[in-house]
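Q&A log
Question type: sequence-to-structure
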Amino acid sequence: MKIKSKTREKVAAEYGICVKTLNKWLKQSELDIPRGLINPNNLEKIYSVYGKPMTSQ
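Response status: OK
Response body:
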């Protein structure tokens, strides 16, 4: 199944964290994710660093 673009709120909810924490994670990992919707390529980068959340859809 193809991954669709997601908001930071959706990605944070998948990990069970708040958006502020997600932004800290991204900064600490030096992942340069642009504002707005997170496209599938950037989602793959996040998932490769932090693992794919069990609730991702």
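Response note: The CA atoms of residues 24 and 30 lie 10 Å apart.
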